[in-house]
């Protein structure tokens, strides 16, 4: 009589996962998502996306170790079966925005997202981020530019005033509007210069003092 040797009782028969004893031998098996390697002992990832049926996914199949994930093209969402993709009425949901952060535009094969003025579409094609107009060429502002959320604001250096177009800067005539000098005032580009009448000299503080 011969007694069957139970190879699985020693070191799991060398199997990395499950060992099955059979008369005169043994065999290894792997859990779902893995397949037996060529050495008959180890288990390696099984790419379900290459099974000839796209893993059962309606649109895109993404392989992960031991499993897979189905994904849908823009304008569709994954069904409860985690495989099928359903058209989610494009822009009808979320107050007409669909899954877009700002503006949803319906096109023939789904939807296309866009952004309000002052924003630009991010790489995911759904969200919007502020556009820094101050970094664009040609320059938006004559002198200085301050970026704001969704817009920008121009401002001028001391001695200048922002024009009605909110872009260019013009010299501010301090002598006419502020009258900063005690005696005489001469406007200069971006500034002014004080002077004194005969018999007086200009003090460092800008006042006129007698000789």
Oligomer: single chain
User: What proportion of the residues is helical, as a percent range?
Assistant: under 10%
Binned strand content: 35-45%
Kindly state the number of beta strands. Answer: 20
Q: Poorly predicted ranges (pLDDT <50, ≥5 residues)?
A: none
Q: Radius of gyration, Cα only, in angstroms?
A: 38 Å
Distance between the termini: 136 Å
CATH class category label of the largest domain: Mainly Beta
Pfam family, one: EGF_CA
Membrane topology: Single-pass type I membrane protein
Organism: Capitella teleta
Subcellular location: Membrane
Describe it.
This protein has 211 residues and is mainly beta. It has 4 domains: 7-46, Laminin; 50-112, Laminin (Ribbon); 133-171, Ribbon (Laminin); 174-210, Ribbon (Laminin). It is built from 1 helix and 20 strands. The strands form 10 sheets. The protein has a two-stranded antiparallel sheet with strand order 1-2. The longest helix has 4 residues, at 174-177. The mean pLDDT is 90.
Short description, anyone?
The protein has one helix at residues 174-177; strands at residues 18-22, 25-29, 34-36, 43-45, 60-64, 67-71, 76-78, 85-87, 103-107, 110-114, 119-121, 128-130, 144-148, 151-155, 160-162, 169-171, 184-188, 191-195, 200-202, 208-210. It is an all-beta fold.
């Amino acid at each position: 009589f011969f007694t069957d040797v139970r190879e699985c009782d020693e070191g799991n028969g060398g199997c990395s996962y499950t060992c099955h004893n059979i008369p005169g031998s043994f065999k290894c098996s792997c859990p779902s998502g893995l397949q037996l390697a060529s050495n008959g002992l180890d288990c390696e990832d099984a790419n379900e996306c290459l099974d000839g049926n796209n893993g059962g996914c309606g649109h895109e199949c993404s392989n992960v170790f031991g499993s897979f994930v189905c994904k849908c093209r823009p304008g569709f969402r994954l069904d409860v079966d985690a495989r099928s993709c359903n058209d989610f009425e494009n822009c009808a949901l979320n107050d007409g925005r669909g899954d877009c952060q700002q503006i949803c535009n319906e096109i023939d094969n789904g939807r296309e997202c866009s952004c309000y003025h002052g924003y630009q579409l991010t790489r995911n094609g759904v969200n919007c981020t502020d556009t820094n107009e101050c970094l664009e060429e040609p320059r938006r502002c004559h002198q200085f530019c301050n970026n704001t959320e969704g817009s920008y604001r121009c401002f001028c250096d001391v001695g200048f005033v922002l024009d009605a177009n909110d872009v260019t800067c013009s010299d501010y005539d301090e002598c006419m509007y502020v009258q900063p000098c005690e005696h005489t005032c001469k406007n200069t580009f971006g500034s002014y210069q004080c002077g004194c009448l005969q018999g007086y000299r200009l003090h460092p503080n800008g006042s006129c003092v007698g000789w």
